[in-house]
Design brief:
The protein contains 3 helices and 2 strands; from the N terminus they run E-H-H-E-H. It is of the alpha+beta class and 59 residues long. It has one domain. This is Calcineurin-like phosphoesterase domain-containing protein. It comes from Rossellomorea aquimaris.
Length: 59
Amino acid sequence: MKIAILSDIHEGLNRKKTGADIMSVLKKWMEAHLPDVFLISGDMTAGPEKSLNARSLTG
């Protein structure tokens, strides 16, 4: 069983600092590695509303 754990993505802050679309990078990684379980802990974004909108990696 493959388990992937990711913490504190801070999507908006990382995009500002690196210019990378972390959610697209994460989606490609997930498609390539196909973990059986994927856990996200910590902050996905700078605020709860943005985190709820960012929770879908399907598009």
